[in-house]
Specification:
single chain, alpha/beta, Rossmann fold, five-stranded parallel sheet, 5 helices, 30% helix
């Protein structure tokens, strides 16, 4: 079993993500995460059952509606919604579930692991902030071609 830091390193370098719970509200983490991933150069798909557009981009009502399989599903939804999202993630061909703080679900994490998905519980915003750019600055502005390796973060956990 991989430790949390190696899982974070592996998946932070995957170029295709989906954010379940993406939002147009600038006060919500679903918005901040979606915009930060997009700004950092990821191909990122917003998933929201109630919105047609998120920040001007097509929003999808389900992970199975995405035009390509995302490697990572970033979850910014209440834990009660997590089991259904995890099942959709597997059906959509995802490799990992990235639970944002507050979205964790023991049942969903266990189901994901039992069905071959990696599980990460950490804040992607923190991980992106920890990643130094090749020029020595933190990630902001246009991304470099190669994604830098994240620094270990002892505040993260995986199940």
């Amino acid at each position: 079993m991989q430790d949390v830091n190696s899982l974070i390193e592996k998946y932070v370098n995957e170029p295709v993500w989906a954010v379940v719970g993406a939002s147009n509200s600038s006060t919500k983490y679903g918005n901040r995460i979606y915009l930060k991933l997009r700004e950092a150069g990821y191909t990122v798909y917003p998933v929201n059952r109630r919105e047609r557009l998120i920040e001007g981009d097509t929003a999808y009502s389900s992970l199975t509606d995405l035009p390509e399989p995302p490697a990572v599903i970033n979850m910014v939804v209440p834990p009660v919604e997590a089991p259904a999202v995890v099942e959709q993630a597997r059906a959509a061909g995802a490799q990992a579930i990235w639970f944002q703080p507050g979205a964790e679900s023991d049942a969903a994490a266990k189901w994901a692991k039992d069905h071959g998905l990696d599980v990460i519980e950490a804040c992607i915003l923190v991980q992106l902030a920890l990643m130094p750019r090749s020029d020595g600055s933190e990630l902001s502005g246009p991304p470099s071609q190669a994604r830098p390796t994240p620094s270990p973060d002892p505040t993260t956990s995986t199940r």
